[in-house]
Amino acid sequence: MNLELLIRGLAAGLIIAAPVGPVNLLCIRRTIEKGWRSGMLSGLGAALGDTAYGAIAGFGITLVIQFAIREEFWIRLIGGILLMAAGAVYYFKPPQRLEAGQADVSANSDVLSAFLLNIGNPTTMLSFGVVLATLGVGRQRSLWQGLLVVAGIFFGAMTWWTIVTSVASRFRGRISDRTLMWLNRLAGIAIGCFGLANVLLSCGRRH
Fold first, then answer.
1. Residue range of the domain that includes 106
2. How big, in percent rounded to 5, are the helix, strand and coil portions of the chain?
3. Among 54, 72, 148, 205, which lies 20 to 30 A Cα-Cα from 32?
4. Span 8-52, pLDDT tens digits
5. Which of 153, 176, 184, 160 is nearest to 26 (CA)?
6. Whose CA is closest to 149, among 164, 133, 163, 162?
7. Crossing angle of the two packed helices 62-70 and 122-134, in degrees rounded to 10
């Protein structure tokens, strides 16, 4: 039973992390621009964000879950605006030269920015309860069982980020500085579009 909970938590972590979204684009961009270490640190920040939401849903903190459902309009609206702002920043941000990518990497910045981007993504917040309920791990459990679910979510998410950064790292040597500039712009546009989609969804929920 306990092993089954761990496996289901791991599956939840993979399911939540895998869809292409703002954090996936951020990790890929950082891996190509700065190297594998920066991409993995960004993945760690994202996994910690997933784990935080997983803990809320996994321990059955219904007050928080009900608040998220009730305030979905504001969560999507504010989160969408923040994503649009982040997209604009990445679009206009000048790319680092690949030769300088290995030096002067701020570990704290990589982890924190990915963590904030992930927990600020309304889709992540609103989908956790659904995913855990679908996998049968969303109801109230003992502390030990809840910890197993949360640990599974963390390791599932980190498995995904390890795969993503490893694959992106293999293509790093083939990317020119000009290509990196366009990659930055495409990432900025994509992140902004995710934000715009959430703003539009919030308007639909309002009506």
1. 2-206
2. 85, 0, 15
3. 54
4. 888 888 888 887 677 888 888 888 888 889 899 999 999 998 888
5. 184
6. 133
7. 130
